[in-house]
Hints:
Blueprint: H1 7-19, H2 24-31, H3 35-50, E1 53-55, E2 61-63, H4 65-98
Antiparallel strand pairs: 1-2
Amino acid sequence: MPKKYTDEFKRDVVAVVRQGGATQRQIAKDFGVSKTAVSTWIQKVELEERGLVSRAPDGALSTGDDGAALREALKRIRLLEQEAEVMRRAVAYLSQATLPK
């Protein structure tokens, strides 16, 4: 089970990474965390700064209305791609059935 780190600890690690002077890998090793965790924390901070996600009062990240619209659009795109694939297969099957033998 992954360790739980405080938000303050994560902010400190991200601040050290942003100061430069060492690689993320080295900083992660110095703080005793994985490089993946450090990368994830940096990405979350960058998303917060761009306004793509926000922090709820309980500290959890939440996406805004744009995030919900994007999820719906992606869901719709997946559905349309599946429908297009079914149509391609149907056309291929029916074209084989109409060819003279």
